[in-house]
Amino acid sequence: MDLTVEPNLHSLINSTTHKWIFVGGKGGVGKTTSSCSIAIQMALSQPNKQFLLISTDPAHNLSDAFGEKFGKDARKVSGMDNLSCMEIDPSAALKDMNDMAVSRANSNGGDGQGDDLGSMLQGGALADLTGSIPGIDEALSFMEVMKHIKRQEQGEGETFDTVIFDTAPTGHTLRFLQLPNTLSKLLEKFGEITNKLGPMLNSFMGAGNVDISGKLNELKANVETIRQQFTDPDLTTFVCVCISEFLSLYETERLIQELISYDMDVNSIVVNQLLFAENDQEHNCKRCQARWKMQKKYLDQIDELYEDFHVIKMPLCAGEIRGLNNLTKFSQFLNKEYDPIADGKVIYELEDKE
Amino acid sequence: MTDLTETEKRRLLRERRQKKFSNGGASSRLNKITGQASSHLNAESPLDSPSTETTTPVESLRSSTPDNREDKNTAPQLDLLKQLAAMQAQGAGTDPALDSSTPDLLSLLSSMNGGMPSAEGTPSLGQAPPLAGINQAALDYHDYLLNRLKAWTILVKWVFFLLPYLYLITRPSTAMWPADAFTQSSWFAPLRNPSNFTRVFGTFEFLSISIYYQLLKNVEHKSKIRNLQDTNKLVKLVSLVPEGVLPIPNLKGKLVTVLQYWDLLSMLITDISFVLIVLGLLTYL
């Protein structure tokens, strides 16, 4: 029985079942580069499918990685027909909400209440109010997932076969991934109350207004769908990104354990910024030797700890990995593992993005 | 040997991975990582710590009470969510087009607002508000410990000291007192002298209240519930007021201090009342 694990992401890149792919890890280890690379490789290997890369990190990097501006709405990457990107911007989304609340309040103007509320919200009070709520980025990212599922169910607008998340550093990401579970529990309890008080609440709201119980049930069903999808290993997986250093390895292990505790599938680890100094006769300084020795120490530990994981060892490139061309060149090593001898020259071939 | 399909292989690998993280394997992996780097980082795994099993109210409290340091941010957060929900209630349902475009986030936030305080068993990442994690069983257990302490304190104070003492100073020559060396000694003499009553009573109150507070601390430590901060309704109400709304800084802390002094005063008044009642009764006997 052959249970060897390939040191690449070939199976994920060619997967036709995965709908949600999360890419995460400690800050500064190359999450954005890795998520862009996965998205590009998937888009290249499955040209008939549509892919969406979403940044849920409040400090967005996607625009800089591709060298073009992305916003809160999905926009295709120049030069790729089946890959779109978006950066969830809490302040912009909250401003939209504020504007909608203003127009709602104004349309309520007849009863006098609307004017007061409208004038209060004119200055962006709602956005200011909600913008300071801790975890609002995660809530908005979660909303995007819900909207996406809704669109797919209703067949409205642009739909995507696979969504890749370029996540925020570990803490934010875990909070985001925990939302379905937490919300599920909360809605369960809230549902018990509204089932008892529902008719009364509805009568308070008046005829023709919002059916609170109905809305809650709808939300509960959506959350449950997401929870089920996130815990289905055929639909969702998490790719951990790290560098070969102690703190990064420690945080990766904790992240993996947290993900397992959420019943999430995690089977791939991308190890970035490796020097492979012994194979680089041309650029083999004393510092590189020492650093490579340190990296090898942790690589040995990674190999031992994660023998059942896809461990992808990516090289440290001479230049910045920015722009579609550079990302495409770099990303090939996710599909087919990097060979320091045969592929060594690629790391010096990246174009300068001036 | 049969060839495995890709799905079967993935499943088998997944099971193998899960096996390695189970039965204490997760913590030993973290230990290995920290051990080899001589690190002092925490090597306790989230997979090995019990999350759902609750054996005693205190155990369940330990797993569900959010860390106090995180609580500081949650009260204003809850308040903001409440205001947001109020806005939603005012503006909801007037324009179907607008309504269909934003219900999810508003519903999400309003449901978080309504649901958070009753959440149980959610880890600290869930950002539960203060006391949301303290369940009723734990509070009942704390009340039981507190009531037991109060009952014992009163029993010991009144029955074993105040009552005999009051009887002694009002009936110094009764045959009830043993004529042994101790009761007749010069050390015991000040107790028999009614003019020393205030000094003796004051000393006794000081000692008994000090011992009571020390025992109360032990109870709080045992139940993980701070008596006034976590159980007093007035303190709970004041903790809902965001910092900065009122001109008094750290209102909750000040209120707790005042309530502690009031607690102390009420104990003293109760004991004085007891003394007066007993003295009154003894004059008729």
Automatic annotation (TrEMBL), chain A:
Binding-site residues, Zn(2+): 285, 288
Record bears the keyword Disulfide bond: no
Pfam families: ArsA_ATPase
Alphabetized Gene3D superfamilies for the sequence: P-loop containing nucleotide triphosphate hydrolases (3.40.50.300)
Active site, renumbered: 57
UniProt xrefs under InterPro entries: ArsA/GET3_ATPase-like, ATPase_ArsA/GET3, ATPase_ArsA/GET3_euk, P-loop_NTPase
UniProt domain ArsA/GET3 Anion-transporting ATPase-like: residue ranges: 18-335
GO biological process entries: response to arsenic-containing substance; tail-anchored membrane protein insertion into ER membrane; vesicle-mediated transport
One GO CC term, this protein: GET complex
Function: ATPase required for the post-translational delivery of tail-anchored (TA) proteins to the endoplasmic reticulum. Recognizes and selectively binds the transmembrane domain of TA proteins in the cytosol. This complex then targets to the endoplasmic reticulum by membrane-bound receptors GET1 and GET2, where the tail-anchored protein is released for insertion. This process is regulated by ATP binding and hydrolysis. ATP binding drives the homodimer towards the closed dimer state, facilitating recognition of newly synthesized TA membrane proteins. ATP hydrolysis is required for insertion.
Assigned protein family: Belongs to the arsA ATPase family.
Complexes and interactors: Homodimer. Component of the Golgi to ER traffic (GET) complex, which is composed of GET1, GET2 and GET3. Within the complex, GET1 and GET2 form a heterotetramer which is stabilized by phosphatidylinositol binding and which binds to the GET3 homodimer. Interacts with the chloride channel protein GEF1.
Name of the protein described by the UniProt record: Arr4p
From TrEMBL, chain B:
Keywords: Endoplasmic reticulum, ER-Golgi transport, Glycoprotein, Golgi apparatus, Membrane, Transmembrane, Transmembrane helix, Transport
Topological domains, Lumenal: 170-196, 285
Biological process according to GO: protein insertion into ER membrane; retrograde vesicle-mediated transport, Golgi to endoplasmic reticulum
Bias-annotated ranges (Low complexity): 49-60
Family matches, as InterPro entries: GET2 (IPR014802), Get2/sif1 (IPR028143)
Parts of the chain that traverse the membrane: 151-169, 197-216, 261-284
Short name of any one Pfam family annotated for the protein: GET2
Bilayer topology annotation: Multi-pass membrane protein
Ranges of biased composition (kind: Basic and acidic residues): 1-10
Record bears the keyword Transport: yes
Bias type Basic residues, positions: 11-20
Cytoplasmic topological intervals: 1-148, 217-263
Subcellular location: Endoplasmic reticulum membrane; Golgi apparatus membrane
Sites where a glycan is attached: 196
Region described as Disordered: 1-73
GO cellular component: endoplasmic reticulum membrane; GET complex; Golgi membrane
Compositional bias annotation for Polar residues: 24-42
Function noted in UniProt: Required for the post-translational delivery of tail-anchored (TA) proteins to the endoplasmic reticulum. Together with GET1, acts as a membrane receptor for soluble GET3, which recognizes and selectively binds the transmembrane domain of TA proteins in the cytosol. The GET complex cooperates with the HDEL receptor ERD2 to mediate the ATP-dependent retrieval of resident ER proteins that contain a C-terminal H-D-E-L retention signal from the Golgi to the ER. Involved in DNA replication and DNA damage response and also in cell wall function.
Assembly with partners or alone: Component of the Golgi to ER traffic (GET) complex, which is composed of GET1, GET2 and GET3. Within the complex, GET1 and GET2 form a heterotetramer which is stabilized by phosphatidylinositol binding and which binds to the GET3 homodimer.
HAMAP family: Get2
PANTHER family recorded: GOLGI TO ER TRAFFIC PROTEIN 2
Family label: Belongs to the GET2 family.
Protein name: Golgi to ER traffic protein 2
Organism: Saccharomyces arboricola (strain H-6 / AS 2.3317 / CBS 10644) (Yeast)
